[in-house]
Specification:
Length: 122
């Protein structure tokens, strides 16, 4: 796997982080970046475990870490250590959202965690 996919993923996350929900063009760009990040995660998953391990380094890079945590769990069959790191990252996002008073995002992260932790424990 080339580092180009990782770099592109991080760039998309950085662009998505600057969304202006009051601007339709900005929201369209956000949606396009979100779709591209999902596609990159799928592509990496198809490349195999070594590629997934290298891609998991994104879990330590903001603002891509939160996106990557979701995408790795949803799109790939990751090892137990990476899965735990993804879940921990989402728990952090939930706490950060609560601290900011963003209860809708906090609740969304909580619901996602419950659903995916249940799925992955089966």
């Amino acid at each position: 796997m080339s580092h180009e996919l990782i770099d592109e993923y991080i760039a998309c996350a950085e662009e998505a982080a600057s969304v202006n929900y009051a601007d339709k063009k900005s929201v369209r760009q956000f949606n396009a970046r979100s779709d591209r990040m999902r596609a990159i995660a799928k592509e990496v998953a198809m490349l195999g475990q070594d590629a997934l391990v290298r891609f998991a380094s994104v879990l330590d890079i903001e603002p891509a870490a939160g996106w990557a945590a979701h995408h790795l769990v949803e799109m790939a069959d990751v090892d137990a250590e990476t899965l735990a790191k993804c879940f921990e990252r989402v728990k952090q996002a939930k706490l950060q959202a609560e601290a900011k008073g963003d209860l809708a995002n906090a609740m969304g992260e909580e619901m996602w965690l419950k659903e995916w932790m249940a799925r992955k424990s089966q």
